[in-house]
Amino acid sequence: MTHWYEHAIIYQIYPKSFQDSNDDGIGDLNGIRQRLPYLQQLGINTIWLNPIFVSPQVDNGYDVADYFKIDPRMGTMKDMKALISACHQVGIHVLLDFVLNHTSDQNEWFKKAKSDPHSQYRDYYIFAGANNQRPNNWGSFFGGSVWEPDPAGTGQFYFHLFDKHMPDLNWRNPKVRQEMLKIAEFWLAQGIDGLRLDAFIHIAKADLRQSFPVKEIANENDQTIVAEPFFANLPQVQKWLRPFCEEIKKDYPEALLLGEAASANVNLAADYTAKDHHLLDSVVTFRYFKDDQRHIDPNLPAAVQPKGLDWDAFKKTQVIWQQTLGQVSQPTLYWSNHDMPRLASRIAKTETQARSLAMLMYLQRGIPIIYYGEELGLKNLLFTAKEEFNDQEAERFITKAADWGLTKAEALKMVSQAHKMPARGPMPWTAKKPNYGFSKVSPWLEGQSQNNANVQAELDDPDSMFNFYRQLLSLKKTALFQSGSFYLLATANDSYVYQRDLANDSAIVAVSLSSQKLRIKLPSEYRKVMLTAGQHYLNKDELILMPYSGVVLSK
Length: 555
Ligand code: GLC
Ligand code: CA
Hints:
Blueprint: E1 10-13, H1 29-34, H2 36-42, E2 46-49, E3 53-54, E4 66-70, H3 77-89, E5 93-99, H4 108-115, E6 127-128, E7 147-149, E8 157-159, H5 174-189, E9 194-198, H6 235-251, E10 256-260, H7 266-273, E11 282-284, H8 311-325, E12 332-334, H9 343-346, H10 351-362, E13 367-371, H11 392-399, H12 408-418, H13 455-460, H14 465-476, H15 479-483, E14 485-488, E15 495-502, E16 505-512, E17 518-521, E18 528-533, E19 536-538, E20 542-545, E21 550-554
Parallel strand pairs: 1-2, 1-13, 2-5, 5-9, 9-10, 10-11, 12-13
Antiparallel strand pairs: 3-4, 6-8, 7-8, 14-15, 15-16, 16-21, 17-20, 18-21, 19-20
Residues 59, 62, 99, 162, 198-199, 260, 338-339 line the site of alpha-D-glucopyranose.
GO molecular function, one term: alpha-amylase activity
Pfam families: Alpha-amylase
Protein name: Oligo-1,6-glucosidase
């Protein structure tokens, strides 16, 4: 049996930044609905929306205060229903982001857990420790300890892997598991087509008395370590997730369950997605991208520096994921998302390379996920105020720029290129300054455009990045690229060349990763050009690729 999602081409929308329909500076659901013709033109068939539920927006919606209501800044339930049905009318599926590892501290459950230690909601969260002593030395992903003192002053602490305003749910408690299932099914009943399970690999935690071993214990209360082995991918994740997924699939067999498995290696990815394991359909890993250590200045904090990609590691990782998941599930294929800088700022050296890398990634076997604006070649914004980053480390670095030998402008430029927030800027629909057709007022997140890319200009230009993506996606939809087998050809590390085969149909995707002209030996029967990025020349048994160029050739 085949499911629609095996052929999904996902477009990730950051709702606050896509289109503002009522001119309050914040993108909204009606704005997305207005722009469906654009998405149809691009050729995607699924949208994934970052969180849209009621939230104090400490972490841009990943802190959910009410799972059953739409954040009024983004619209109403009526708007959501209108969006779902408008999408379905044009054959676009809708995925929602589902935050299941934690809630906002403004969620009713947490408010009750806090105000009454004897309420049943206390056990919805993870309270531990006594006499103001933290249970262990684990550190949060967002800095500092995972433990925050119980505001009620009991001398206990509550657990948060992310911001302190985002307490972790206690999945050990069967009631929590039931509640989360209820929420998921509530949204599926509204007609959505699937869920992106946010940070699901963290729902299980090790014995909380267990500190992470450190060399030397200076002052136990000060030292924290991001102790991933104690809260990522533990076996109970699968145990608790299985009934959740099974129930959903029983009631909604066509629901796509897409998991965010940031640190999962390929074997775990196979575990999470094997059909007979009754868990997820596909996962997103961050393991695709290893930083090029040679480009990191050891004297500056790593988080604020632009980092290149380690291409050797990338090539190996890609082919291993393609091979290992080949008979198991569809890998996800992506270059960027809201948690990293944009492709054109982070990796692609030229516009040609942005194209050839898209070609390389999305024509492999798997489900593309295109981050909004990537199809325009959009770059990270340049921020002019440190507060825009919404990140303590970034702010500290810019404040103290002089200590690092940088001017404030230089520091802002550096962090703007390296950080995730400048990748979340408003979609530029027109060239019209200052708000580029996104809104009539200043957008919620403002910065300077780095390449003036915009929809209007690109729609009209047959050679634009947008029109390249259109061609690429229409090629992706052919049977060969949907279902063909994949294998990597043995070429040097300055190129990435693979073949897709399906019965008698066959194509080679050849991409240069080099700033030099490259010569690659190729079987002479592959001479029909299906798609080009940059420039190439074909001789009898040889392909010549100009810097960072790519080409798709068939027989
Ligand atoms: C995921 C999201 C990220 C968020 C975190 C906490 O990693 O992608 O944006 O901050 O979960 O919900
Ligand atoms: Ca709005």
